[in-house]
Amino acid sequence: MTKKIFRTKSINEFISETKMDGGMNKFLGTFGLTMLGIGAIVGTGIFVLTGVAAANYSGPALVISFIIAALACGCAALCYAEFAAMVPVAGSAYTYGYVALGEFWAWVIGWDLILEYAFAVSTVAIGWSGYFNNILMNLGITLPAALTMAPHDGGIVNLPAVLILAVVAFVNIRGVKQSSFVNNVIVAIKLAVVALFLALGFSHVDASNWVPFMPFGWSGVFAGASIIFFAYIGFDAVSTAAEEVKDPQKSLPRGIILSLIICTILYIAVSAVLTGMVPFMQFQTTAAPVAFALQAVGYHWGAAAVSVGAICGLTSVLLVMSFGQSRVLFVMSRDGLLPKFFGHVHSKYKTPARSSALVGVITAITAGFLPINAVAEMTNIGTLCAFIIVSAAVIILRKKNPNQQRAFKCPLVPLVPALAIVFCGILIYMLPLVTQIRFIVWLLVGLAIYFGYGYSHSIISKTRRSTVPAGSAAANMNPAAQPTKGH
């Protein structure tokens, strides 16, 4: 049994499976992938968590916290880029784990990604609802409290959160071309708003607000990095679109790295201007620090524009995260680890429509009816764990298969992957203990599902049992080296 749970799949097997049922439409290039990455990354982090991290953890040294988080993500991104170019298949880290480490670790990563995307989408939808209600109130429109809050908070349903997730699911079902177009428009708007904030705020920076620069010491800086790590989550969603990319060997690494570089520059600039405009302790009283800073210096119209930008930013995050989760479910189903329902490709739209619809329903129920507490930390720990496994997989596959063709190579292996593992491990350690315990419980539930369903329904196991005679020499070969016989 031990050997079977660590059975691997070859890259050729994965690629051959992408051609089943005609495959999905290939539409995306480097620009579209970069915009998808920015769409997923720039959102809650820049419009909400900057204030939280500055007031409670980092102070003006928030800039350093962003750099530390960027280093962790940058090392991991280089590892993702190597795999994305080598294995241009939907599923992201799940697929990479299957190739290098085997089915068991692939399941662990896939289960992590389900946690990451589901909690992130639900949380962001609730934040979207809050900004939306605030804009309506400024226009003189007030929705009944019963329709804007979860039952736990005294309402009936958070209707705006449910409706935006329904719209997102519809767009994703229609196809990557439509999703990409909508995302590009939204990203253009929110980048313009961020540029507006920097232009207005720069002239109001007071250097005295940066003193003391590190009020909570280095421990506060690292704790702040573990919190605002949420701001970088999303670049990995770029790799989930692999089967819908025209030239994945070139475009995927470029899209991953470019989106991370652009967002890091934006985050550093915004955090420097933000903490220079207003004393960092004042951000304890607001959940919208960027708009708050503009109001504090008299730009009320600018604050309103930022609120619109925040709505756009959160919408694009919802779009790309929901897109990513549906693709992870799709490829796990195609491998037999989840029911076939998730692996269906729509005959007209060439998208995993059922997975997209189910993601929409589940996240809408969660966002509409449940209070979400500490979900940012849960999202962070799931992602950090996936980053560690992918980084380890790069080192292992370089040893196991050094001659494998690699269109993009992570530099300085094993140093860069090792740094990714160390950085991500430190950030996990800095998260609250209760978050770590909840994550362990989530993993135990996932293991129960794997051994109760996935292990016995694995397509690779069924295929090899039916095509390789028992006791033959071929049966003892490395499974990753055997050719696929089709499903």
From TrEMBL:
Topological category with respect to the lipid bilayer: Multi-pass membrane protein
GO CC annotations on file: membrane
Subcellular localization, as worded in the UniProt entry: Membrane
Gene Ontology molecular function: any one: amino acid transmembrane transporter activity
InterPro entries, A to Z: AA/rel_permease1
One protein family per Pfam: AA_permease_2
Record keywords: Membrane, Transmembrane, Transmembrane helix, Transport
Residue spans crossing the bilayer: 27-55, 61-83, 104-128, 155-173, 185-204, 216-235, 256-281, 301-324, 357-375, 381-398, 410-431, 437-455
Alphabetized PANTHER family for the sequence: CATIONIC AMINO ACID TRANSPORTER 4, INNER MEMBRANE TRANSPORTER YGJI-RELATED
Protein name per the record: Amino acid permease
